[in-house]
Amino acid sequence: MPGLVRGVARTAVIAGTATAVSNRVSRRQGNRWAQQEATQQQAAMPQQAAPAAPSESDSLAQLKELGELRDQGVLTDQEFAAQKAKILNG
User: Fold this and answer.
1) In angstroms, rounded to a whole number, what is the distance separating the alpha carbons of residues 85 and 79?
2) Contact partners, residue 5, CB within 8 Å, separation at least 6
3) Would you call 66 exposed, middle or buried from its count of C-beta atoms within 10 A (0-12, 13-18, 19+)?
4) How far apart are CA 10 and CA 8, in angstroms?
């Protein structure tokens, strides 16, 4: 009888160890796959380009709009000058 209990106990220990190792390996492999997938997704995403500097026609249109707002009394001369400086300095 003691030999039977010892055999069952040994089997239980081996099975528990095998389960723990298997779970650890599965978790590690899952983490690797998740990292690879994240890396691939980042590589597949197009890089965002820096915003282009406004062209002269855009700047001119903005200045005209500011002038109209100043003429209508929406902007003060000081506000107009500040916004104009921002547009011209880029």
Assistant:
1) 10
2) none
3) buried
4) 5
pLDDT in tens, the chain (90 residues): 677 888 888 887 887 887 887 888 888 888 888 888 888 888 777 666 556 655 777 888 888 998 998 999 988 999 999 998 888 886
Separation of CA 81 from chain center: 38
Determine how many CB atoms are found less than 10 A away from the CB of residue 79: 13
The domain locations on the chain are 1-45, 56-89
The pLDDT assigned to 49 comes to 59
- Angstrom distance (rounded) from CA 35 to CA 18: 26
In sign, the C-alpha dihedral spanning 8, 14, 20, 25 is negative
